[in-house]
Amino acid sequence: MFDFMNELHEECGVFGVFGVEDAATLEYFGLHALQHRGQEGAGIAASDGSSVRCMKGHGLLSEVFKTTDMEKLPGQNSIGHVRYATAGGHELANVQPILARAKIGTLAVAHNGQIVNADELREELENRGSIFQGTSDSEIILHLIQGERGNLMEKIAKACRRLEGGFAFLILTEKNLYAIRDRHGLRPLSVAKVGDGYCISSESCSFSVINAQFIRDVRPGEIIKFSTHGVESSFYTEDCEKKTCAMEYIYFARPDSTMDGLNIHTARKETGKLMALKDRGEVDADIVIDVPDSSRSAAMGYSEVSGLPLEMGLIKNRYVGRTFINPTQKQRDMGVKLKLSPNPDVVAGKRIVLIDDSIVRGTTSKRIIAMLKEAGAKEVHVRIVSPEFKFPCFYGVDTSTKGELISSRMDVEQLRQTIGADSLKFLTIDDLKLVYGGDHFCFACFDGGYVTDLYSHRQSIQ
Amino acid sequence: MFDFMNELHEECGVFGVFGVEDAATLEYFGLHALQHRGQEGAGIAASDGSSVRCMKGHGLLSEVFKTTDMEKLPGQNSIGHVRYATAGGHELANVQPILARAKIGTLAVAHNGQIVNADELREELENRGSIFQGTSDSEIILHLIQGERGNLMEKIAKACRRLEGGFAFLILTEKNLYAIRDRHGLRPLSVAKVGDGYCISSESCSFSVINAQFIRDVRPGEIIKFSTHGVESSFYTEDCEKKTCAMEYIYFARPDSTMDGLNIHTARKETGKLMALKDRGEVDADIVIDVPDSSRSAAMGYSEVSGLPLEMGLIKNRYVGRTFINPTQKQRDMGVKLKLSPNPDVVAGKRIVLIDDSIVRGTTSKRIIAMLKEAGAKEVHVRIVSPEFKFPCFYGVDTSTKGELISSRMDVEQLRQTIGADSLKFLTIDDLKLVYGGDHFCFACFDGGYVTDLYSHRQSIQ
Amino acid sequence: MFDFMNELHEECGVFGVFGVEDAATLEYFGLHALQHRGQEGAGIAASDGSSVRCMKGHGLLSEVFKTTDMEKLPGQNSIGHVRYATAGGHELANVQPILARAKIGTLAVAHNGQIVNADELREELENRGSIFQGTSDSEIILHLIQGERGNLMEKIAKACRRLEGGFAFLILTEKNLYAIRDRHGLRPLSVAKVGDGYCISSESCSFSVINAQFIRDVRPGEIIKFSTHGVESSFYTEDCEKKTCAMEYIYFARPDSTMDGLNIHTARKETGKLMALKDRGEVDADIVIDVPDSSRSAAMGYSEVSGLPLEMGLIKNRYVGRTFINPTQKQRDMGVKLKLSPNPDVVAGKRIVLIDDSIVRGTTSKRIIAMLKEAGAKEVHVRIVSPEFKFPCFYGVDTSTKGELISSRMDVEQLRQTIGADSLKFLTIDDLKLVYGGDHFCFACFDGGYVTDLYSHRQSIQ
Amino acid sequence: MFDFMNELHEECGVFGVFGVEDAATLEYFGLHALQHRGQEGAGIAASDGSSVRCMKGHGLLSEVFKTTDMEKLPGQNSIGHVRYATAGGHELANVQPILARAKIGTLAVAHNGQIVNADELREELENRGSIFQGTSDSEIILHLIQGERGNLMEKIAKACRRLEGGFAFLILTEKNLYAIRDRHGLRPLSVAKVGDGYCISSESCSFSVINAQFIRDVRPGEIIKFSTHGVESSFYTEDCEKKTCAMEYIYFARPDSTMDGLNIHTARKETGKLMALKDRGEVDADIVIDVPDSSRSAAMGYSEVSGLPLEMGLIKNRYVGRTFINPTQKQRDMGVKLKLSPNPDVVAGKRIVLIDDSIVRGTTSKRIIAMLKEAGAKEVHVRIVSPEFKFPCFYGVDTSTKGELISSRMDVEQLRQTIGADSLKFLTIDDLKLVYGGDHFCFACFDGGYVTDLYSHRQSIQ
Fold first, then answer.
1. What ipTM is given for this predicted complex?
2. Is B263-318+328-438+450-461 assigned to CATH 3.40.50.2020?
């Protein structure tokens, strides 16, 4: 299981609204459907045609915004952001959107993803005299745009040509809204119609929530400008090649989102089915269980093809939040569990196929298997519906260093022993290509095939 | 779907710890596993052998208690309570445990269930001079105990003989802890071993969380006394007959709990299987979906027997809480949804079997079916894995009046039309008896077969 | 200085409104003017002619109540309470008003003062079968009322005859409001006209705030009933003798209150004048300073008569609240101060007359004198504008035991040495009688002349 | 009375610590003594020799910081800021310190005052490509420093030469701390020794609180660098002329602060004495009263010289805070007061000399006089211990436009009639020079004699 609490990464969500009354409130609901992408900070910027205003803070959307705050964010256009904690997590300067008052007017930027040449750009900008308040890539984007010539559309296009990496960002000005997706489409972004206006979201699950009608995904390298004159599309480069992030399908996105034509639940379920096909005749088990909630779809697929009953063997506690009291050391030693607990009467005496989405450091898998065995499971056969995670991601999923990825240090058999599984199997990249229907995905975290140069990050994968 | 937000009921959870260091912290974790039973108030009382202390407040456990509060609740024994809002919900006087300083020492009581003769007892006690600060049944219990003769064990037994209804309660004194379950065992309660001591919980799911070993359910009519001299069991009456509440199995309890020998997940899954058997050859559908999270187990069972693929057609947003901003009326009209949204790419063009646990007022079912059809579902066949809910409950599930129960007003066909389903089917009481394996259940909400006299509530069912 | 943070006492404030629209909001403002009497808890009960509702919590009024709460407390009648922390301070059960649902209807009680025979009454009531949830005297009053015969007015009168001590309380029923003051008038209570209705307050400073017109003080032993039929007065006993608490004049009340005809500021200023007269020719000093805020009026008087300039030698920080970060031990050792700091340029090189209202344990006086000397003061002549505090109070000012009162352990010269003053003088009881104009005051804390029997408290003064 | 709630200004406070263990906690206490200078936002930056960290938020210090936050701000050096709300008050981007990561390392800036050529500098910087996140002058300072050549000391000096206006700011780097005061010394700043290190504060009242020993005021135009190598002083310009802001003495500063050798309480008291001298034989009154807390010192002086008794005629409620419930319109009409109320028994029938510090818009004075007359005052003679406030300030006291200053629109007699006083008198600038002992003060708000060019603000005084 990709454990959001233990791993360091920067996945976030962005949502925008253009041309709809009370845009900030609609923003709130659209953003709320992206809350699973980031729970450590949230912000909303809104413009009423003449001013751009911004509010943000630490925590969940519902902790940051009160009903009366919506009045402080008037206007028909809005962008917003939900954010995961990172190393520098407690600095409010990194919570987005980031607002800049510049020569060309006021701009707010909300950004998902990671710029791989950020260090180089930052150094260049600092040498040129720029100063930064936080460490977010959004500030770099703002500085680059400001430094280019031409009208804002040209400035944005020129700035984007300087950026390498995976990114999707929204820019709000006094009058317009711009949506940009990197030339590989590494990070997702799609557009829908809502009322007389538009909305743009990291995931299409936002659209159902506000009853918006999906139009299409933003294309790799595309800049879409929303203004009162209509919608304009252009590309910042001709060098585009779709390479959508596989991890979005594997565990980031909500099952009711559809990205670049592929529904998340369906994609996951298919990986489960394929795994069952590959297991045929090889594993003798009684039941299939998932690790809630991320591998549920895959477990459904495995059960469907294998004919093994799907059971609820692990339960997730929904009420663990930021202000939760931690167990004492003594209680930890006693075995007090917080997030996941086993369903003893379901697993006792059973040979279990445990479907999980991925193994990053291995510690969570080890804990889950031990928990199941303590609860009486006879065998635990772990099936990971993705390939071995061997290379760090620099496109928005910051898994720190290669050394921390357990699959980069050991082979499948060693890993099996380490986590205490009775058997362990992964899918291959070819399996994923089969399921996803093509080659237009980034599998760099599995095979190191990065789609861009890595700049200063190159050393992290040595 | 039994919609906790719209229906009025009083289901709660109690948890106790005896003879374990830092009892209040352990209490916190045990209670936390019962949070699904009540999110509107929480309280913990602890005793250190000489004093009983109590803290409580509105909201989730994590909102009521901070880490430093645990120091204010020292001792090896503890009881706690999580509570659902009721009509008089904002009165702090009803949040439990309730502490009483009386002739016989200090007693704290935490209570789950409903005393049907509460009005009569209250009037009798008021006539005798008692005064009440809140409207909870716990206060009545405290007054009754105080009014009886004998040692505390005798007082409790005598007081219990005066009570009719469904109840499970814990009493904490300076030195001892008592666990009591009504003579029909309507409300659940079970005991486990933890460290050198014991814990008692409304649901056994608390036990896995703190690594406690299940011992047994408290028996109908049993009073268990935990003291430093050991554990003593007695019965307050010989007139006991197990009649466990069927609704606990249908929707209240967590799937990883086991009550009176029957695992919740398994019981639910079996109802889904039975429904599929009864549907054989009758329904022509493409997929099965559940209403998260309560009918998930049943949907697994239906899929297993019917062979129809189980899909994720509805998604629940986990982040809707008490401080959430509500949509404007205009946005409601636009169709902004908060808790549940459809997965359009999964349901579009499909003939769906929708598994739900129950229909109370019908409004939620109607909304869900409309939502699915808007998202493109071709047909929605609703399968309720419980019988028609026709009679109000007076044993802890306060569904107000009979008139509000849609099944008491119309037959299945009328109901089908009202909610807009293409077909609608319920299980029967006999089906449940088959699944649950016996007759020792209370099915009063389905057939009006109340296991006790109803006193002043009789008029509600006319 | 009577240091509210170090001493244990139970002084509180009560405020009531009868016959005015939005009574709870007006209650809020009237109570707010009494906030100096208690900052640890606040509560408001309101009735709309048919129901009595109550809300309360820990902390300041502004922390307990939000604007929207006022809607939950509809009606034209209201009572409220602000409360000081006591030993059992963290128990919400003690926060008032306390609501009782009894045979005779719903009653809410808010109470200021202390019942000296509380232990005896509690024991009697417990023997009779009553149970208590908290430790406040209000609960005893409620039980007593309920236990008596007759209409409510008679019940209250009979109950009051059982009470000994200092008390002022308000009772709110569905339709009426009762205001009661003990037969010695130990605790203050007065009535005013506001709009078409009435208000009742522990201090008349509440009246200016809401533009109410003072009518008169409630008389010792009087019960005033406010109903839609008008205002009725009666006395629960003929054995009344006015003995107002001197400490109200010395430090409790706000300077803009007038109690039993004597304005607080004026009374305090006169004590300062008298001290200056008594000091004539005896003390050679440069300036007079006060301990903010309690001895400011007296210092004005001393300066006026002595001709010595009044200066601001000590400053109080207004922003020290409950959530304040405490200094580390190291910082304490360094001399970090929080509440009071000296004005070095005013005190350096000066011979100072320091006016203070009282000395309880002596620790605060010692700290202030040391602070002034460190800041360069040449001499500090302490003048206490009240007599030596030698006996504990049992009428609402709980100063725990006699042993903690420094003046009961040493004479003036020893005390002077202990606190490090260059000279030290107190007023006498006769001085106070001269200033206050009569003998109708309780001076028990100075001379042990308690106006009632002390019951179980007698041992505390041995 | 200068009503902080109604007027718009930007007065703030800064505090710094260098070379003391747990600098952030000491910072907290020093800053806390400056809380009267700003209650709308607070922030602390700390450095441990290698990193600069920053935390900030809206509200009081005690609302922004919790005890555990101090651990997140390790190190021996710190700067902090308390801030008043301004027009753009809700933007967190303006809360200081502001942190910048630049070519030359990380810098945090906390700033008090106003740069009059901010618009010009901002435009110049924007033309050069700089972008701004907020509207605070601190960001301009950071950009200017970054844009200059040389070592940091030289960069700061060059940047300061570009700034015109009143300012005092602190800069924290990984290793050093810089304290800078504008060349006129318009805004105050002084230095003290604490433990083995130093502290720097807007007001010396911070020093007593943490037991620091005052060394001296920072000189106009001076830059003091604190490093582990010692303390270095230099001047950014030779064109320095002391012109301390008179308003600091009149109402901003705490009475226990001493600025440029003049104690605030003493300066205020002297203005009261001088007013009494000028009144000799002219006013026939019974008592003197102050408007708490700002004119208390002056009222003491007036009483001392005039021989009229000083009384407490107005009382300030200490508990009015940000979350306070506001009266309904009906209650306002009834006369509900929140912050100030009269002491009726003191003022009734009296001819009053009311000492106030200043009149800005006149609305507060009018309300106070009406309140006193309603309470029975026979005559109210208003004495303002400062000259008529006719010109807006651009050096840190932003009183918006000239038109809002009532004294710029009417003469003293018209003003007297407007506010309803029986007589009205102001001091003159010459009076203040006499009291303050010299000409080295800025009296621009009284006579328009601005000590710098006004740039774009010139139009505001036409």
1. 0.92
2. yes
